[in-house]
Amino acid sequence: MAILGSLAYSALQARAQSGASAAVPPPVGLYEPSTPAEEQALDEAAAIVVQAMINAAKADGQVDATERARILGRLVEDGADAEAQAYVEAELSKPLATAALVEAVAGRPDLAIQVYGASLLAIDIDTPAETDYLRSLANALQLDAATVASLHEAFGVH
Fold it and tell me: Does the global pTM surpass 0.90?
């Protein structure tokens, strides 16, 4: 989350400087929550980011072993317990839920950038379906071309 938060913050600053965005909201994942409300917001954002990774992995109609390992590996790195890992395994078997994902992000440009970045991290873009999914996701999240290009560059994805 910290990496995604940092990328989101950088992208939002660039957007604000170019006039595409008036304000730079505080980035999710770059700070330790100091109140229960902040902790809840951070937990909710983390769940949305994980859901984005799961959704991206399903974009081509199948979740391959590499994608599954990448997502579960991120969870383990972040200290997820067995219950969280089992939840993700179950979610990987469900259909795409892009509309619900986009709705959960509405009005939060910092989280939209993190969702797109997490989607890039979850998959190897090696099918037309994955390319189409990312294009559609960027449009639904209202990410401009410069922000998308910046994220692709940051993650070494072309």
Answer: no
